[in-house]
Write a structure and sequence with these properties.
The complex is a heterodimer. Chain A is mostly helical. Chain A contains nine helices and no strands. In chain A, helix 7 packs antiparallel against helix 9. Chain B has nine helices and ten strands. In chain B, helix 3 packs across helix 4 (about 115-125) and helix 5 (about 145-155) packs parallel to helix 6. Classes of the chains: A mainly alpha, B alpha/beta. The interface of A and B includes residues 123, 127, 132, 219 and 221 of A.
Chain lengths: ~220, ~260
């Protein structure tokens, strides 16, 4: 492998990491409250409100129905409005975040629903308000599961950046399409895939490790 | 004192209507240990959960320590609940918090000053016999220890009433006995009113002063506990006693077979 390939690979990896990190962060900021609202407004829960629950659930489903490439194209005008361009990694972060937020909201909803309702009732019985129940009961109790869910989300977003790469966002996906596929550079294709595999394995390992650490602390016998 | 008047509750599902409570009237004296006994599905859990409105009654009135629980709005109810402790069959401890943090939680919710929280939690853990476990997590404890933490959490904010929702039903007989002793001890030391529901005759016999029998959502018998055993009037009470006697007779009969 010559130096220029390594160069391309590192630039691509940098762009991908940049897109994944920022998109995940923004998607989390958008998705976390949505996931919490989905759980809290459910029937019988702490802030029961069937109407809000239904409307929010429908919006999330609609956004999630878009195939990611279509969603990215549809949201490009918004990217131009916010970032000033539709090209490059920064522009891709806008559609990526918006596309990933409903996904993260559903993952968070799932994790929070795993917390047994008895714990919520115990907190209600001592006179805790809904905000305290969310911050002191639901989120800490679901933390290992939340981390595992976020790991899934980060890997999903990594996949989405490759799609965005195909339409001008840069990153490893773009590298694989432009060089590996269009110029028949099998070596670049292979190098890209290997880099992505290592990246995804690393993310999964980190997520599992963190979740296990928390669980081990809670289960430890001494 | 707790006064329950004309309490009714119905569960409505698309396919059926189930009466859970029907015109329940009860009076529980200050400092009493009051047992409510009934078979599964009789409505006892609904009744005790109505007392702190974890379950919303359809109609009726509940007075605890002179306050009308049923007339309160959300904010008032949150404040009132701080003085009504509750323990559960499944303990419902927070796995993410240590024993200390679990017991401190109600105090934090009530905005207790930080310095006092530490002394109060240590004091109450001493009372339930778990002073050496304050740094442990609930998942590291046995069932009996978990329920002791549950009791400590319910008592930390010095409530006037303790509600026990089948608190010993998930425990083995020996542990049940030690938890009952603890409740009795607390009742005498703190003068706390305890309302408990159960389907175990032993619980009733062991710690309760007064009892009520609930059957299909109605209170069918009330009085002192001795009456339940000596002169059962209601169908449920008679069935409970006959089951007990049945088992005892069978045991004598079979003993010769060398079980």
């Amino acid at each position: 492998m010559n130096d220029d390939v390594l160069d391309l690979l590192f630039t691509g990896l940098g762009e991908t990491l940049y897109m994944v990190l920022l998109s995940t962060l923004i998607a989390l900021i958008l998705g976390l409250p949505l996931g919490i609202i989905l759980v809290a407004t459910e029937k019988g829960n702490i802030l029961e409100s069937p109407r809000i629950n239904k409307v929010l659930g429908t919006i999330i489903n609609v956004v999630r129905s878009f195939p990611s490439i279509i969603l990215i194209v549809v949201l490009l005008p918004l990217a131009r409005f916010i970032v000033g361009t539709t090209l490059g990694a920064t522009a891709a972060i806008v559609p990526l975040s918006i596309g990933a937020a409903p996904f993260i909201a559903r993952i968070i909803e799932n994790s929070l629903k795993e917390v047994s309702f008895g714990k919520v009732e115990a907190a209600m019985a001592i006179g805790a308000n809904p905000f305290t129940i969310i911050t002191k009961v639901l989120i800490p109790e679901a933390l290992p599961s939340l981390i595992r869910g976020l790991t899934i989300a980060v890997i999903g977003i990594t996949g989405m950046t490759a799609v965005a790469g195909a339409i001008g966002a840069g990153g490893l996906g773009s590298l694989a399409i432009r060089f590996g596929y269009m110029r028949y550079r099998d070596d670049i294709m292979l190098a890209t895939i290997v880099t992505l595999v290592i990246l995804v394995q690393g993310v999964q390992f980190a997520g599992d490790y963190l979740a296990t650490c928390i669980n081990r602390k809670r289960y430890k016998f001494d | 004192m707790i006064r329950i008047q004309e309490l009714s509750k119905m569960y409505i599902t698309p396919s059926s209507k189930t009466v859970a409570l029907e015109n329940v009237n009860l009076q529980i004296q200050q400092g009493d240990i009051f047992g409510i006994i009934g078979f599964s599905g009789a409505g006892k859990s609904t009744l005790i959960r109505c007392l702190n409105r974890l379950e919303e009654p359809d109609s009726g009135k509940i007075m605890i320590a002179g306050q009308d629980i049923t007339a309160m709005n959300k904010k008032e109810l949150q404040l009132a609940r701080r003085k009504i402790g509750m323990i559960f069959q499944q303990f419902n401890l927070l796995d993410a918090k240590t024993v200390f943090e679990n017991v401190a939680f109600p105090l934090q919710v009530s905005n207790y000053p930080k310095k006092q929280i530490k002394t109060r939690v240590e004091e109450i853990l001493e009372l339930v016999g778990l002073a050496n476990k304050s740094k442990a997590y609930p998942l590291q404890l046995s069932g009996g220890q978990k329920q002791r933490v549950g009791i400590a959490r319910a008592l930390s904010n010095e409530p006037s009433v303790l509600l026990s929702d089948e608190a010993t039903s998930a425990l083995d007989p020996q542990t049940t006995y030690s938890i009952l002793e603890l409740l009795k001890d607390i009742n005498q030391k703190l003068g706390l009113t305890i309302v408990l529901i159960t389907h175990e005759l032993d619980v009733l016999k062991h710690i309760c002063n007064h009892m009520a029998v609930i059957e299909h959502g109605k209170i069918v018998e009330t009085g002192v506990v001795e009456k339940f055993f000596l002169n059962p009037e209601s169908d449920t009470a008679k069935r409970f006693i006959s089951i007990l006697q049945g088992f005892q007779e069978k045991r004598v009969y079979k003993e010769g077979e060398g079980i």
